[in-house]
Amino acid sequence: MGLLALATACGADAAAPSSPSIAGGAAGQSAGPVVVSDTGGANGGLGGGAGTSTTTGGMAMAGAAVAAAGTAGSADSTGGTAGAGTVTPDSRLFTSVDFKGECRHGVPELDGETHVVVEGAGYDVVAYGSEMGHHCGQDQGRFLYVELTGDFDVWVQVAAMNNFGALHFKGHTTPVKSGLMVRQGLAPADPYIAIHAASPDPNYPDAFHFDMRREVGGWLGLEGTFSYGYLNSSQPIFLRQLPNIWVRLQRIGNLFKAYASQDGQSWLPPQGHAEYTADWGSSLYVGLSSASAPEGEFNAKSATEFRNLAGFPAPSPP
Predict the structure, then answer these.
(1) How many CB atoms neighbour CB 45 within 10 A?
(2) Global pTM value
(3) Dihedral over alpha carbons 8, 243, 122, 61 (to 10 degrees)
(4) d(Cα 103, Cα 40) in Å, to the nearest integer?
(5) pLDDT tens digits for 69-123?
(6) What is the rounded CA–CA span in Å between residue 154 and residue 249?
(7) What single string gives the DSSP state of each residue in 208-271?
């Protein structure tokens, strides 16, 4: 039973299984993904592929020991972590931080939660706040991160999302947005690149966003400071039939790419912007990102089940 059923998550480890088949690549390698064209849709039916994982240790855990997990505390591009909530080492892999930036006329009052389901493979995340980027120059939400140096290739299944009926400021529903993020620093206004899946919502036009905050404090209202790619109703993956939603984020030098998938095997790049170039240095914060209500209430709550992580470092020993 997952966090969305309000179960208590366990911290048991699982034996390291094999990774999804990515063009024949081994676990942890940055092998080229099986990319489907922008107009072709993703391979495989919505019910096929990797299948549903559980929170009792029966998931197809993937990934390899790339490097030791990093820790928080280095200075960011704004000179500190002002506006960030309590930084907590919730697991033996990730450290969690709540972003409490100024957005939608307020800041979240509560700290989020990170529940370890299977260390290195599955995490349940409670987040508070409106959104990351887009309509805000400062982020709200929760970020689970590890510091990685050099190239990386990470992916994760977004198995479930719920924001308990949170509303847009115009009064209609608005989705959860959860996925993968890389950041320069840990302050709410710091530059980032992220691929987020949006929970199915009739009022939201895009199924996925591939974002880049180009400057400190950048958002859509400041021209040239924020960009995003998307996948919308022109693609079959727009249906987002959970739990068959996967996102992937790659770094090759200064080039960052993202993909979405229905099975964790065949990957579709975003439209509009499919890659970004950023000279941000060798070491960056990489991990899981979640926010509750785009253009909605700053105290909105969401719960996301992340499963089948791949490409991240091995957790430190217990």
Answers:
(1) 12
(2) 0.77
(3) 140
(4) 37
(5) 333 333 333 333 446 665 666 799 999 999 999 887 789 999 999 999 999 999 9
(6) 5
(7) EEEEEE-STT--TTSTTSEEEEEEETTSGGGG--TT--EEEEEEETTEEEEEEESSSSEEEPPB
